[in-house]
Amino acid sequence: MADEWDSPSGDNASLESFDGQADGDGALQRPAQNIDFILDIPLEVTVELGRTSMLINDLLQLGQGSVVELNKLAGEPLEILVNRKLIARGEVVVVNEKFGVRLTDIVSPIERVKSLG
Fold it and tell me: Under the GO molecular function aspect, what terms does this record hold (predicted)?
């Protein structure tokens, strides 16, 4: 009696072919994949002018015209963060009546790795 898992011809069903190639050790390598889909992933880009901390009481006292003093000096580079990770520094520019940032320094991959720890 034929095994119910056999194909009608009696041969086992064939598997789909694999387009990978064997390397020098005989291990199969995956074919190169198109990763263009990652180009459409949205990222959060933040330009940080400076930071401060304040008491809740001081926060409640703020009103129109109040000035909040930040930890950076005027003229210091702004920090450009992508998904909360520092990737560059720059300076404020005006483009078509809107603020922009001119990149003046790109953080190296080594510096980015160091900042993770």
Answer: cytoskeletal motor activity
78 bridge partner residues: 90
Which of 74, 109, 103, 102 has its CA nearest to residue 88?
Answer: 103
Per-residue pLDDT tens digits for 69-86: 999 998 899 999 999 999
* CA 88 to mean position of chain CA atoms: 13
Q: Domains plus CATH for the chain?
A: 38-116 (2.30.330.10)
Residue 18 has pLDDT above 60, yes or no: no
Q: Which two tokens stand for residue 115?
A: 């900042």
Single out the residue of 43, 49, 39, 41 nearest to residue 101, CA to CA.
Answer: 49
Rounded distance between C-alpha atoms, residue 49 and residue 73, angstroms: 10
Return d(Cα 87, Cα 58) in angstroms, integer: 33
Q: Which two tokens stand for residue 87?
A: 């990737």
- Rounded to an integer, what distance in angstroms lies between the CA atom of residue 100 and that of residue 109? 24
Query: What does residue 109 show for φ and ψ, rounded to 5 degrees?
Result: -55, -35
